[in-house]
Design brief:
The complex is a heterodimer of chains A (about 160) and B (about 140). Chain A has four helices and seven strands. By secondary structure, chain A is an alpha/beta fold. Chain A has two domains: about 90 residues, Histidine-containing Protein, Chain: A (2-Layer Sandwich); about 60 residues, Alpha-Beta Plaits. In chain A, helix 2 links the parallel strand 2 and strand 3. In chain A, helix 1 runs antiparallel to helix 2. Chain A is rod-shaped, with a radius of gyration of 32 Å. Chain A starts with a helix and ends with a strand. Chain B is α+β, with helices and mostly antiparallel strands and about 140 residues long. Chain B folds into two domains: about 70 residues, 2-Layer Sandwich (Histidine-containing Protein, Chain: A); about 60 residues, SH3 type barrels. Chain B is about 20% helix and about 40% strand. Chain B has three helices and ten strands; from the N terminus they run H-H-E-E-H-E-E-E-E-E-E-E-E. In chain B, the strands form three sheets. In chain B, strands 9-8-7-4-10 form a five-stranded antiparallel β-sheet, with no helix packed on it. In chain B, a hairpin with a 5-residue loop joins strand 8 and strand 9. In chain B, helix 2 runs antiparallel to helix 3. The radius of gyration of chain B is 17 Å and the shape is elongated. The chains are: A alpha/beta (about 160), B alpha+beta (about 140). The interface between A and B is medium-sized, with 33 and 29 residues.
Chain lengths: ~160, ~140
């Protein structure tokens, strides 16, 4: 009689123990996912996945610094239950548009230098090269006018200022 | 020295001056800066700092294209030629006939921006036509 009771109570507590353990892991993954998503919620384009305590981050951000910051924030969410963080986030630095249409750029350079009779310009692959002479006090206007055309580069190294 | 280190002073001013749509990126050995400044003063400050860091822009390693947000239809702009009159043209191009002139420091009205380089303006005398935007500075 007593033995049966003992076996029953052992069996019963084992069941309870197992059920408690399995409940815990199910809640943990979802729970962790929610917690990690909470700390990265202000970053668009980041996707969080959690499986067996391993957090996988993916998506796109615009800088390496941001990529690292998100990884560190994720790790800090729950040091005990997060086994590791796999960082598959891709860094895509936004490109600034430049005008590499030499025909278009050349026409615009003509207008920009109309008032600078002693300069010559060449435009190649989006690079504006200037030679000739410019008054010192007007050099800034020239550079501003050329920069405003969004070229790849403005080379004034051969310009003589007086 | 990387470009961002060399021009840290310029980048700092750009970041702290309320520039809209500020973009700063190093591409193929050139530091590109784009954005819209809240006033002509801010734009001028950026250019002062740039000139200090690269006198006469000899290094050719920066392209800074920052315009000014106060250059809107109906606003007043000042003619900032060095000495001469500013040509007012029939159309947006130096190949277009000259239809009038505005004097240095004259304040005229910006009617609209045809494009980034050419603005349609009107003087107090009623002369109307296109001026090269680099010679016009928004007031305030």
């Amino acid at each position: 009689m007593r033995l049966r009771n003992v076996i029953t109570s052992i069996a019963l507590s084992s069941c309870i123990a197992f059920s408690v353990i399995s409940c815990k892991s199910k809640v943990s993954d979802e729970d962790l996912k929610a917690k990690v998503e909470n700390v990265v919620s202000n970053t668009n384009g980041v996707i969080v996945d959690v499986k067996d305590g391993i957090v996988t981050l993916s998506g796109t951000v615009s800088s390496q610094a941001e990529r690292e910051a998100i990884e560190n924030s994720a790790k800090a969410v729950d040091g005990q239950h997060i086994k590791s963080v796999v960082n598959n986030i891709v860094v895509q630095v936004p490109q600034i548009e430049v005008n590499t249409d030499d025909v278009d750029l050349s026409a615009k350079v003509v207008d920009a230098t109309k008032d600078f009779p002693n300069v010559q310009t060449t435009v190649k692959d989006g690079i504006i090269t200037v030679t000739g002479t410019v008054e010192q006090s007007r050099l800034q206007v020239l550079k501003q006018s050329l920069d405003a055309l969004s070229p790849k580069k403005v080379d004034l190294s051969a310009v003589v200022t007086k | 020295m990387t470009l961002t280190t060399k021009y840290q002073g310029l980048i700092d001013v750009a970041n702290s001056s309320g520039i809209e749509n500020l973009q700063i990126a190093e591409q193929e050995g050139v530091l590109h800066i784009r954005g819209t400044a809240p006033s002509a003063d801010v734009k001028n400050k950026l250019w002062d700092v740039y000139n200090q860091l690269d006198p006469n822009y000899l290094s050719g390693d920066v392209v800074m294209n920052v315009d000014v947000s106060t250059a809107i239809a109906g606003s007043q702009v000042r003619v900032i030629t060095q000495n001469s009159n500013l040509n007012i043209r029939k159309g947006p191009g130096t190949d277009q006939p000259i239809v009038g002139k505005a004097a240095k420091d004259e304040i005229i009205t910006l009617i609209s921006r045809a494009n980034d380089q050419w603005w349609l303006v009107r003087t107090n005398d009623g002369e109307e036509g296109y001026c090269y935007a680099q010679y016009l500075e928004p007031i305030a």
